[in-house]
Amino acid sequence: MTIPTTILIVAMTIAAEPAQSHEQNTVYQQLIGKGTDVGDGFMALPSPSMPDGLSVTQEQAKLKEIFGDNLDSFTRQSVVADHIMRTDLVESGGKRVRTADFWCIAYGKLSVVKDKDFLNQLLMPGQDSGDAKGLSAEQLAPRGIKIGPSEQDYVGYGHVNYDLLKKVRLSLTGVGRWSSVGQSVVTAAMLDRKFLEDREFPNQWSPLKLNEAGGLVAGTPQPYMGAGVYMKITQLSSVSGALLIESHMLINEPFEWFQGNNLLGSKLPLIVKDQVKIMRTELGKASR
Predict the structure, then answer these.
(1) Residues 19-36: pLDDT tens digits?
(2) Quick one: three-class SS letters along the chain?
């Protein structure tokens, strides 16, 4: 499971129904606007490459912008068709923020994607999601968080514990929303600063080390902020039966995680390649 899907699990933990407008998806709007809290500032994710409401001609032009002239290698109906994945490490003021973006074409029905249970399956197919759970209204209230009646169907808070590459144990608590309008679905999530030093659901990381028995043991936990992700799935008009899936993510990557080595950057392309194949397979099966 990739870091983006780890955080998206938080987004999907409770939210049962999508908002009816991407403008109502306040998590998504913050991610592409003000940005997500990375500890001592904010960093925004790029807006989607494929806007809503384009004509067939405009859509074709956008696909060429994304995939280039060799579009056929990306749109062929195969689980191993080409995809694009880019990752970078932005270093500024002592901060190290990992970004990752990917685009792929998959074949299936958008109506299938709008099902919450299938989205969960799509995000973590056959993989260990860590210890993920949703937070109830009773758990949120003492923390000053109240989800209004008009929001409770499409906003959720969740917590997940996850071991990253057997080097870092992550404890993540955040807010997620998803929205569906016309020919696209957006799911978005980011960590919430209210849980930075929470006693029960803290946002923190701990180094992992092997003990004498060969098991992983967590060291002293450190406060952690700086993770956000969204995924947009768009039904294409210019390619029959095709969906464009794009995901944009950033995560604060402290030097201490990997001692400055490019471990995460080198692993992400392989992880995403496998996940794209699984997503295409599951979409095809569910859309028959």
Answers:
(1) 678 998 999 999 999 999
(2) CCHHHHHHHHHHCCCCCCECCHHHCHHHHHHHCCCEECCCCEECCCCCCCCCCCCHHHHHHHHHHHHCCCCHHHHCCCCCCCCEEEEEEEEECCEEEEEEEEEEEEECCHHHHCCHHHHHHHHCCCCCCCEEEECCHHHHHHHCCCCCCCCCCCEEEEEEEEEECCCEEEEEEEEEEEEEECCEEEEEEEECHHHCCCCCCCCEEEEEEECCCCCEEECCCEECCCEEEEEEEEECCCCCCEEEEEEEEEEECCHHHHCCCCHHHHHHHHHHHHHHHHHHHHHHHHCC
| pLDDT, tens digit, 9 for 90 and up, residues 110-167 | 998 887 667 666 665 444 445 778 888 899 999 999 887 767 667 788 898 889 999 9
What's the whole-model pTM score?
A: 0.91
Which of the following CATH numbers is that of domain 3-286: 2.40.10, 3.40.350, 3.30.70, 3.30.530? 3.30.530
